[in-house]
Amino acid sequence: MPSAYLTPRLPSQQGFTLAEDQLPLLASTLLTVVHPNAIISLEGGLGAGKTTLIRTIGQAMGIQTRITSPTYVYFNQYTVPANSTSITQLLHVDFYRLSETDPTTESTHWLVEELLELQAQAPTLILAEWASVVAGAFQPLITHHLQLHEAPNTQEEPSTARQYEWFSLQRLPL
Hints:
Helix content: 10-25%
Largest sheet: 7 strands, mixed
Strand order of the largest sheet: 1-7-6-2-5-4-3
């Protein structure tokens, strides 16, 4: 591991930089600090690595199914294998398409209600891309926020490093 990279020490508010091959470290660290029914907002530009990180978190939870972006279906639901964690399902949400419409529409309210209904049925981790798009409907429910940035490249070769900022919002477990 290059010495320029920092090991994430969550849940305090801080920033750190990781290469893509270090994402399993971040995923396992996240899973030790989030509680069942946590909702993590992942923000960052297109191609910032949100889905890649969510895929890595799913793998750390023991999910064998390929985790794909739910951009066109709003969310994907994955069952977490028994005994891998106290969380039994992962919901990967992508609110990006709602940015093209009014975020107070019926579809936004339906989506938030659907997510909360699924969350009420079983211990769930919700990982939400572009949650800021539906701030009014969803923002008060978010327990953690992770901001992703492409790290500045100081080398001649393309970098796979990403900068992360972690904010634990200290909300009570649902």
